[in-house]
What does this fold into?
Amino acid sequence: MKAFIYFLFVTVAFSQSMVEGVVIDSNGLPISYVTVREISEDKDVDNWHITNNDGLFNISISNNSKIEFSRIGFNSSILESIKDDFTVVVLSVDSIQLDDVDVFAKDNLNYLTKTNKSGGLGSFSRNGSLNQVPSLILRTYGGYAGNVSASFDAGFARHTKVMYNDFDLTSSQNGLTDLSMFPSFVLNSINYKLNSGVRYGSGSIDGTLELDSRRVSDKIFYSFGSYGLEQFGSTYVFEREKSKRTIIFGKTDYEGNYKFHNTASGEKEDRQNNYLDQSFVAMERQFIINDDLIVNINSMTSSVVRGVPGSLSFPSLLATKTNEHDLYSLSFIKFFKSSSLKLFSTRITTEEEFDDPNESYPILSVHELTSNKFGLDWKQRINTAMDYQLIAEKKSDRMDSTDLSNQEIDNTSALLHFNYINKKKSFKLSPSIRFDKQSSTKKETYNFGTRFVDIPLANSGFLFDIAINAGSAFQFPTMNDLFWPDGLYSSGNPDLEPEDSNYMDMKFISNNPFGEFIIGASTKDYNNLISWQPDENFKYSPINISSASRSTINLSYLRRFEDSIVRVSYNMYDSNDDEIDKSLLYVPDFMANIFYSVDLNENTSLIMNYRLTGERIAQYESSFADQITAESHGIFNIAVDQDISIKENNLKLNFVIDNLFDEEYESTIGYPEPGRSFQFAIEYYL
It folds into this structure.
């Protein structure tokens, strides 16, 4: 053991550096599709990257290399040295000298209105990486093999949209996304945007979770952990001067059975039928046809076979579920002097089979869902202070199901977004409006955002920003809501109206030598919420009956030291279901999150994350059941990263402990979670 600990903390100098950052313009707005290329004096290299829609990049370079940033319409820039763990690169338009650039809110990165989470808890701990997002709540249904849904600010899971490499993963059948379709090693880059309904449309009332696997390095990896968890796989980039192919693949096996405390019997029991067999492969192909044209082709396949332990009473221990997800996309990006045009198409096919051969109540349910989308994304810079974006999409969903038979839904949408920056007055206006149509139903949503920067705080010498957003969002009824067959016990409702919401939030942001402080408050109402209700014959059907409200107060603090980062956030919630005048189900009184990362030496990092969730109602009182209140619980995750140099390549060791204090809890009633677990991973960077 002593020899192992010494090996784990050995320190060796590296010849490679990972550079992460964002490229912005003089208004502080991110620039997408910038070519980020390594320039080496020692050798010819074909190492390049293209920033994503939010201007983010990630590139591994030799320590003696430089980085060039270029895109038509902007002056190129060369970065000669890396000083920070997150680099901000400013490009000026080609008609303005770089010396004249005055970046709006240059000392504050919150203009991105998004946050990226990665690190030692990101690559090999699914709950660890997702729990780093301060306002995100996970609803999990058992161990690693259980379904996972996510929601922002304790809202409804169907009101949070999940994107993967620009694919919309929201199921038109039930309005949800099961995050367990992704192995944990894919969740190493997680971004989020709150109140993103205008940008992403139906299903993003509370926010959008963005998963990005494209920012990778060449490596092979192997990991093992508790409950028979085993993973192996590889990521590799084939680079040429004008083309690149990125491949990620891996395999996950999980035996899954674990002990849990059964409150009914008071005994420790085995959680059974929780196995998982998962294969994953993704590929991105990028082609720089010339300086003003880029072609992207993406594909992903995820195959999962698992046991379904269900709740403690249903289904039987014979139940299994098989899922296959196939994603394809093609896009063309054309650059002009002051604009860009993106033409894109995506296709998603999902096959699911649920089989429970239980003799007393056998179930066989098969669903095949196909989603096709195509559209355009036009960005235009009007002048140095104004720009706009126009996105138009056409989407069709097709379902072939043992429950719903053959069903179709068509959607069209258009989004118009403006930015106006007044540097002299130090404020920004960002109005946007969206139009959606599903069959004969139409929805209009809007967002009006403004930001005032560098406001002096009395005579303290400190400056702060004020950010205000007000708008609306919605969700169309799902196929289950509309088309569920008329049977003895249930029936769909084709006359449902969309769920909608109105919101307002305000943030006070202060960046000073003591760190970044944010005080935020938001209020949101929900109307026409869809609820399945029984009639006088106890036949269930969905109706627009519910309305609800939620207010949130957020306090957060971020401080970067020379070798460490600390982030603390605290959210207080006040929610109400207007129909019964009680707090919304699963909405806690509060949530607190503490994240700490420290470099113990040049090559060793320690990462810790603690999430405390307050009491919440898990089941309402009824004529046949008592109210169930879930107790407060805290989950502590810890990871150690160790980098080792082997000739010209790097080896990384990663050790993660989830739920270090072995907390007993249920994020969903009737689905006990596993206790303390560990995972050890070896990554060899090529």
Observations:
- The chain has two domains: 2-103, 209-685.
- The mean pLDDT is 85.
- The first helix runs from residue 2 to 8.
